[in-house]
Hints:
Largest sheet: 5 strands, mixed
Radius of gyration: 23 Å
Low-confidence stretches: 1-8, 14-28
Strand content: 5-15%
Order of helices and strands: HHHHHHHHHHHHEEEHHHEEHHEEHHE
Structural class: alpha+beta
Number of domains: 2
Mean pLDDT: 86
Amino acid sequence: xxFAPASLILTNYFLPLIEALGRVKLRQEYLDSVNSFEPFxxxxxxxxxxxxxxxSVIHLLTPFVQDIDFLEKNAVSLLANEATCIGxxxxxxxxxxxxxxxxxxxxxxxxxxxxxxxxxxxxxEPSIREAQAKYxxxxxxxxxxxxxxxxxxxxxxxxxxxxxxxxxxxxxxxEYYCLLLICHDRxxxxxxxxxxxxxxxxxxxxxxxxxxxxxxxxxxxxxxxxWRNIAQHHSYSVSNDLVLAEFGKGNNLKNIExxxxxxxxxxxxxxxxxxxxxxxxxxTILNYNESIIPALPKVESLKNYGxxxxxxxxxxxxxxxxxxxxxxxxxxxxxxxxxxxxxxxxRQIHCSQFxxxxxxxxxxxxxxxxxxxxxxxxxxxxSAKRYDLKKIITLSNPLAELxxxxxxxxxx
Length: 412
């Protein structure tokens, strides 16, 4: 089989995923949503090996990660989710520009006044972590169906858009504004920025940055705070096949007509802006980890659903699709389908090793991992007790000790 160059493989696999958001049922199973967004399972099913996937992730992230040794070690584990996000952004030139702009502002602010930039990130850390948690919940539980009538579709999608802007994108943009001020040698008070009117923040960002791509989603030329107002004030109506929205104040009221597909495109454009702000932040923290991480307040960086998302994406890079995950009564149970076309004991052992990263994300639990195959019946169950896992997880190489504490069982 002939493969495309590594530089093209991963980005190409994100193109069909861009349309996935509108096809997820309301409040469907969490893992179904996760699996609809990660591209790695599709790559495995199309014949790409784990080595191909890792090579693609490394090539994709190399321009943005300074520590190449760390990248090579964690490309298909800790960094799999960032690869997903950046792959989406790299799939269109205007989205790539968002990512490059976000990185340039962060790096420039750190070059200009490193301590001040770190202080800004530390101040926004709690609100941004909470924003990320809300975003995860939104993606999982609040995607609307394409078969809704237009009035239902508009109501649900504007509700999502309003929450996305207000609760999730807003803290990222306020932090971005502070970093822009550092780049331009402007004095500011972080507390005042946090309290300031969001529309004023958007206006100030445009004054500082010659590009308005973050503040005015393509192609409408309407500021992001005005989209929020349309959503929150329900200042729209439905007429025939169009959504008629109104924005502005007083004598400056304006109108825009949107077709159903344009509403969905608006949600994509907003999510891509969030992705650029999020990934640039996460990878900047990684690049300056010795300076930034000690300064950040200790907050819960991942809720359970966020941790499961990361785990599912990383396991998918190895050709294992996670189809069940429960966390009850201090016991984790995770079931996988092995997508490999060959059933070997090595693949089963590989699956058993997922106990370690699961324990890292969910300490203090008994862990059971169940291997199944897409081409054969039967299953293999691997399990370990929490007190044994607590001991080995502190070792420099816990995988080496896992076999000594693990129990496995073959079932027909």
